[in-house]
Write a structure and sequence with these properties.
heterodimer; A: alpha+beta; Phenylalanyl-tRNA Synthetase, Chain B, domain 1; Phenylalanyl-tRNA Synthetase, Chain B, domain 3; 5 domains; six-stranded mixed sheet; 34 strands; B: 342 residues; two-stranded antiparallel sheet; 12 helices; 9 strands; binds zinc ion
Chain lengths: 689, 342
């Protein structure tokens, strides 16, 4: 929306502020100014960026009220001659009153079509419209002035000189002014005569009733259309004219009459024909009465948090053109129909506060019952999860929640994988963002590849974010949103210093990270070998178990998948359901008093079959040991010529200690032998010689 | 014999003087003063001397012994010092070489800013709740006073998943969900951090971004409280000297609605590139909860009032860390991410 500074000054004669000051004041009052353009002859165009509620500002008149109120002045709008309204259903028939309740017309006879005077064309052009001829120009000029869109029909093109406003029928075509054949959906507002459509209401007139050089008589239309219907039609036909824009935002029902009064005035002023001295109407029409709203002083003060003076309240509302009368508890306020946005008491508090100035308000912290804010258990634990991953040197990644179908398929490598059932967006912006992710791995794999392409070769990333799992497709109910953790490693983990070698990432780095993670959540990491997941290396992959169920997967990426994603190094990936883990997490610090007595260390090198996992042996040792075992650690794994084929040697270091005494050699030997015996029985293991 | 004693002394003194290591001096000690040392052997011969010469010989031998002993000790200490000094010299290292450090890992700047925002509001008594990112049309729009076909729907272009389900366009649906669950109990004091989605992508918009919504509903909550809470937030987030400015605006779910600016922390308000010369930086939108929203959620707007605010986390992160390009936030380039290790 653009406004002209000189025109504004005509409407607010006492306005002394220059254009820049007006622009700044409008912005401060919530009518945002987008730009100020200087034209020759000290003329200025102020460009507004209006919020959708302020349809009243889509006209010079509306802006005049606004500017007057801001500067504490009065707007002086032209007083036009009263014209009688003639309701005649034979001339205007409203067949779709819910879509068009009011429709007024003014007839201009013996028109002389020609160019408009310079002053008028200049104003139109300054405000972004073109001068066409005096008839079209009047409709545009009055629209800019009053906010009411108008249309001019060649009256003699109408069969029986009759207007019918109705809904369009199925497949009912019309050729519009731009010479396009259009076929809007059935139920669109059509302006017709008894035989044919002559315009799409509020959006564009028909070619068959266009005013031309030959036109003798004109019918000026001023209508009130259902704004939702206009919005739909304008959008569907992609015709966002100035008129449609105003209808969509909602025009002032009282403005129809005023706009035709203006047309009457200008057609005489410009001597372009003989206007009939009556206005035709299709329904009973009277300019709407003010909306009456009670504003209580108490309500106003409580909502604002301070007390404005009576004078401040009254002046700001009166300058907006609102009618005010005091009541016992405040005021009764009459709000003109052009202010559709002012519906109830709270809207008046907004008008008062913005006009008196929000800078007047004190900054106060609320009193009242104090609340104890804070994070819940899961939220606190999540912060711990970040910390433990950061401690391992990992960087948090953040990917979009939507991905492409191809990416998802490229990860799962299996047409029938249940996680390929992803929710599609109905209106994605690009193919890369067409479905809601069901896994964090596509994003992380992309991050590995992108970083590798930027020569970042040592990468440890994690992401914590939701995945979206539909119960059924097409989607009917809210899907479940699970918080997942994804980890992706490739290249080398950090070296401890510049003199030391870097350590290439392997399975156990990933496993150790997950062990660290689970330990802060108070659970052991439980894994189960998995050989048939096409994403992973069959012998370096495990399901992550939690409380007996699989909640994730980890392992080395399958070489085929790595190739698919153009990764030139080994990569290790994990993904798990964090929601479940956080919910059941039970982090505890198990403090034990420090023993004052000495410990004894014994090593144990055990030869077992290759198929027996070190983790199982560790667990068995703990199980077999009594209270005297303080700690056990795996420190070596050996496969080779020194032991028999198909076997490996696992070396453990065990620490024994008692709380109440120093253990004797005999006691330690007994405990150690018991463990050994148990292991030998259980695994058919032997001591490595 | 006495002459022998003098010769021995001279020889010893010369040898000590030439001794060049603590070990050589130890050897000299043994050579002259040890059990079978030359001086010891001479002393043993005292008995062979005439009786009257013995005291003088003994006395002289002891004096020489003490002299040799002292000289050896002195020289030895001197040499040890030199040796130590040499060793220390050899241990000179280049202090300018880098220390051994661990990568600290990093949270994403968005997570960091979110944590900081949460901390501030927790300090003001707010709790943190989260809601679904996939929402119903009702909670995203209708319960927030945005009916179907409302012009405000054009302000935020929406990703739809079905006729009725969509990616939430703001974190505000949790306002309605929380109020519905709590009504008519007071007070409600929550913030809602999370991801939101809009169909928009250019230099200043990404189709996914983060918001933090705040909601306080109680008796007699006012616009001045909104100003107080947001001033406290701005000062904790951007520095104690910050001021805030409320400008009237429009959101369908608040009335009155305001945009909130903070005084520019780069120039202090005199105008610079960051604040486009205005001295102010827009950081969030806010307002008093619209009576329609209160009503729909089960509160009587004459008895309860509320304030609500919503801020874009990306914008705050960019301002806070001086990030020049919004797109960096979602590209996960390690060169970017590692700058937030701390
Ligand atoms: Zn600045």
């Amino acid at each position: 929306m653009k406004i002209l500074y000189s025109w504004l000054k005509e409407l607010v004669p006492d306005l002394k502020a220059d254009a820049q000051t007006v622009a700044t004041a409008l912005t401060d009052a919530g009518v945002e100014v987008d730009g100020l353009v200087e034209l020759p002859d000290q003329e200025y165009v102020i460009e507004l960026d209006l919020t959708p509620n302020r349809s009243d500002c889509l006209s010079m008149w509306g802006l005049a009220y606004e500017v007057a109120a801001i500067f504490g002045l009065k707007a002086e709008l032209p007083q036009d001659e009263e014209l009688p309204i003639l309701v005649d259903a034979n001339k205007i028939q409203l067949a779709a009153p819910q879509l068009c309740p009011y429709y007024l017309g003014l007839i201009l006879e013996d028109v002389k079509i020609g160019p408009s005077p310079d002053w008028l064309v200049k104003r139109l052009e300054a405000l972004g419209m073109r001068g066409i001829n005096n008839i079209v120009d009047i409709t545009n000029y009055v629209m800019l002035e009053t906010g009411q869109p108008l249309h001019a029909f060649d009256y003699d093109c109408l069969v029986d000189h009759k207007i019918v406003v109705r809904e369009s029928k199925e497949d009912e075509e019309i050729i519009t002014l731009d010479n396009q054949l259009r076929k809007p959906e059935a139920g669109t507002i059509y302006i017709c005569d008894p035989e044919k459509a002559i315009g799409i209401g509020g959006v564009m007139g028909g070619l068959n009733s266009e005013t031309t050089e030959q036109t003798k008589n004109i019918f000026f239309e001023a209508a009130y259309f259902d704004r939702r219907s206009i919005r739909r039609t304008a959008k569907a036909l992609d015709l966002r004219s100035e008129a449609a824009l105003r209808f969509e935002k909602g025009v002032d029902p009282s403005g129809l009459y005023k706009a035709l009064q203006r047309v009457y005035y200008y057609s005489q002023l410009l001597k372009i024909g003989q206007p009939q001295k009556e206005i035709l109407s299709g329904s009973t029409y009277a300019p709407q009465a003010d909306r009456q709203i009670l504003l209580s002083r108490k309500y106003l003060d409580e909502r604002i948090g301070m007390s404005f003076s009576d004078q401040q309240v009254e002046e700001s509302l009166q300058n907006l053109g609102f009618a005010l009368s005091p009541t016992e508890s405040g005021w009764q306020v009459g709000v003109p129909s052009r202010r559709q946005d002012v519906q109830e008491e709270v809207d008046l508090t907004e008008e008062v506060s913005r006009l008196v100035g929000l800078d007047q308000l004190p900054a106060v912290l609320p009193e009242g019952a104090s609340t104890q804010g804070g994070l819940n258990k899961e939220q606190k634990l999540l912060q711990k999860v970040h910390r433990v991953l950061n401690k391992r040197g990992l960087n948090e990644a953040l990917n979009y929640s939507f991905i492409s179908k191809k990416e998802l398929k490229d990860v799962f490598q299996d047409e029938n994988h249940p996680l390929l059932q992803a929710i599609p967006l109905k209106n994605p912006m690009t193919e890369a963002q067409e479905i809601m992710r069901t896994s964090l791995l596509p994003g992380l794999l992309k991050n590995l590849r992108d970083n590798q392409n930027r020569q970042n070769l040592d990468i440890g990333l994690y992401e914590i974010g939701r995945i979206y799992l539909p119960e059924q497709l097409p989607l009917r109910d809210l899907p479940s949103e699970e918080l997942h953790l994804g980890v992706a490693l490739t290249g080398s983990s950090q070296a401890l210093g510049w003199q030391l070698a870097k350590e290439p990432y392997d399975f156990y780095h990933l496993k150790g990270i997950l062990e660290d993670l689970m330990s802060v959540l108070g659970w052991p990491l439980a894994l189960k070998e998995k050989q048939d997941d096409p994403r992973f290396h069959p012998y370096q992959c495990a399901e992550i178990l939690f409380n007996g169920r699989a909640i994730g997967i980890m392992g080395a990426i399958h070489p085929d998948l790595a190739e698919n994603w153009d990764l030139n190094q080994k990569a290790f990936l994990a993904e798990l359901n964090l929601d479940l883990v956080l919910k059941l997490a039970d982090p505890k610090i198990n403090y034990k008093p420090l023993s004052r007595y000495q410990s004894s260390k014994r090593d144990l090198a055990l030869v077992v079959e290759n198929s027996i996992s070190a983790q199982a042996v560790l667990a068995t040792i703990k199980l077999a040991a009594g209270d005297l075992l303080e700690n056990v650690e795996l420190f070596d794994v050996y496969r080779g010529s020194q032991i028999k084929a198909g076997h490996k040697s696992l070396a453990f270091s065990l620490t024994y200690r008692a709380q109440d005494r120093t253990l004797t050699d005999a006691e330690v030997a007994k405990a150690h032998n018991e463990i050994l015996q148990f292991l030998n029985d259980y695994y058919q293991s032997e001591l490595r010689q | 014999m006495l002459q022998n004693l003098d010769d021995l002394r001279n020889e010893a003194l010369k040898a000590i003087d030439q001794g060049n290591s603590p070990e050589a001096l130890n050897d000299l000690r043994v050579k002259y003063l040890g059990k079978n040392g030359e001086l010891t052997l001479l002393l043993r011969q005292t008995g062979k001397l005439p009786a009257e010469q013995r005291p003088a010989f003994g006395q002289k031998a002891n004096t020489i012994r003490a002299q040799i002993e002292n000289l050896i000790n002195e020289k030895r200490e001197e040499l040890i010092k030199v040796q130590q000094e040499k060793k220390i010299q050899e241990e000179k290292i280049d202090l300018s070489l880098p220390g051994y450090r661990l990568r600290k890992g990093s949270m994403h700047p968005i997570t960091m800013v979110l944590d900081e925002i949460k901390d501030i509001f927790i300090g003001l008594g707010f709790s943190v709740v989260e809601g679904p990112e996939i929402e119903t049309d009702y909670y995203d729009f209708q319960a927030l006073n945005i009916p179907l076909d409302h012009p405000a729907r054009e302000m935020q272009d929406t990703f739809y998943l079905s006729e009725d389900l969509l990616l939430r366009t703001h974190t505000s649906p949790m306002q309605a969900r929380t109020m519905e669950a709590q009504a008519p109990q007071l007070p409600i004091k929550i913030i809602v951090p999370g991801k939101v989605y809009r169909r928009d992508e250019d230099a200043t918009h990404t189709p996914m971004f983060h918001q933090v919504e705040g909601l306080l509903v109680d008796e007699r909550v006012s616009l001045s409280h909104l100003k107080g809470i947001l001033l406290s937030f701005a000062q904790q987030m951007f520095g104690q000297d910050r001021e805030i400015r409320l400008r009237p605006s429009f959101f369908p779910f608040t009335e009155p609605s305001v945009e909130v600016d903070i005084s520019c922390f780069a120039c202090g308000g005199s105008g610079c590139r960051l604040c486009k010369g205005t001295g102010w930086i827009e950081i969030l939108g806010a307002g008093m909860v619209h009576p329609n929203v209160l009503r729909m959620s089960g509160y009587n707007p004459q008895e309860a009032s509320g304030l609500a605010f919503g801020m874009g986390v990306e914008r705050i992160a960019m301002l806070k860390y001086g990030i020049d390009d919004l797109r960096h936030l979602f590209q996960n380039d390690l060169r970017f991410l590692r700058q937030f290790e701390n």
